[in-house]
Amino acid sequence: MDATRPPLPPFSTASATEKVRLAEDGWNSSNPEKVALAYSKDSQWRNRSEFVTGREAIVGFLTRKWQRELEYRLIKELWAFTDNRIAVRFAYEWHDDSGSWFRSYGNENWEFGADGLMQKRFACINDLPILAADRRFHWPLGRRPDEHPCLSDFSF
User: Fold this and answer.
1) For 82-139, what is each residue's pLDDT tens digit?
2) In this structure, what CATH number is given to the domain that contains residue 37?
């Protein structure tokens, strides 16, 4: 049996905001096994045009993602929430193995079980090629520092 993953639904503004930041922190670790633990064993994803079901598939998906998307830095922001659902918008910057930089923008819809594990994740994402000089996310790899601007502080 999985342990609970606080904060648990039903969400308040504070707990939904905390859940979003915890998700951001996890994804910024670029550790597929760690990130997958936030999802139910039978979690269902739609990520762009790919459909993923279950933790093992999530680990495989994230492993491939972070082998391709290098120096990954992500900011997520709460958009809306209800009892057990959260909507976020996000942006992340990364480069490919040829050194070309991108900023990826998107929205996610999340649904959680009573245990706080994410059961469903639906992501829509667009990639924009950028120059290295146009990057905005410069913190050391890993967790975004608390003093770093949040997504609303940028004009995109």
Assistant:
1) 999 999 999 999 999 999 999 999 999 999 999 999 999 999 999 999 999 999 999 9
2) 3.10.450.50
Helices (H), strands (E): how many in the chain? 3, 6
Q: How many domains does the chain have?
A: 1
Domain that holds residue 64: 13-135
Is 28 a domain residue? yes
With vertex at residue 74, the alpha carbon angle to CA 93 and CA 103, rounded to the nearest 5 degrees, is 25
Q: How many CB atoms neighbour CB 33 within 10 A?
A: 12
CA distance 36 to 55: 6
Q: From edge to edge, which strands make up the β-sheet containing 70-81?
A: 50-53, 39-47, 118-130, 101-112, 85-95, 70-81
What H or E segment, with its residue span, contains residue 119? strand 118-130
